[in-house]
Known about the structure:
32% strand; alpha+beta; elongated; Methyltransferase, Cobalt-precorrin-4 Transmethylase, Domain 2; disordered C terminus; 329 residues; Immunoglobulin-like; four-stranded mixed sheet
Amino acid sequence: MLELFKKLTTLPEIESFIQGASSDTDIEARENSNIEYKEANQKFSNTNEIGKDVSAFANSEGGLIFYGVKCDPSDPTKPQAITGLDAKNIETFDRVVNSSIHYPVNGLKKKLIPDHNPQVMLVYVPQSDESPHQNAGDNKYYVRLGSESKPMPHYLVELYFGKRRRPKLNIRFDHFLQPTLQSFHDDNFSPHCPLHLGLTNSGRAIAKYIRAVFIFPGDYIKNLKLVTDGTHHVFEIFPHMHLISDLNPLGHKVWEYTANNEVIHPGTEVSVARFQFRFDRALLLESDTEGNNPIFEWTTYAEGMERQTGKVILSSLFNPSSIHRVINN
């Protein structure tokens, strides 16, 4: 359909195209699952039809809509003639497409033929990777069935939602060497350990309006703080990280990462923070204690993404080559 959209650039070319359907020499030019004709020589009285047809094509295989072409009353699938385009309908189309289809359809193209005093508005609607798109005019989802735009059955809406591309944000961290018991301080806590956190997008869509919450229980770790390179203030390096412990009734340290003006593309990663902390030796000596007391818990959010959650225990932070058996003397 995109090639046909590019090919049709003049009124004679469009007239030739629709005449092929009128004479039955080109059955593919009739209204079908990929082509729709609309009269538009008078101001649109039902703007819901715009959102209905555009969303239906996007939710199906894509297609072309010819605004300014009349169909044969005795055969509604057969284009009959170019009847012209009311200039006000151009603005109306743009307004409806930009405000009444959720999510917006990416890759939609439009051209006026001819450029001056246009008689036809030709619209190309691609098959969308973000379907299903909803027509906000009546809050329904549409699909092309033959030459008509019909409401989607409920099972089909569920199927399309299952296929929609979405972001998926998970936590990534750098491993560090497991401290030896001999290195622990007199307070039974370890030396300072590094914790570099990042966010990775393993989904198929760009992550927007990103938020991540990190909860550090206070029972078995202490001296948790953000660290820098020594030449910059901590919030110059990590401007999106904020301590919100005061909001937590349990007294845990809670950090929040919020980035409303940045995105994470699929298959990429951003650095979130560099912490240092000390942990209680009980986490090394007692496996039940370690399993029941994660170093931190995390939750990630992004537009269009189901919330992701997880817990990270101490041993998962260690470089595997440095893990050694600990004996409590």
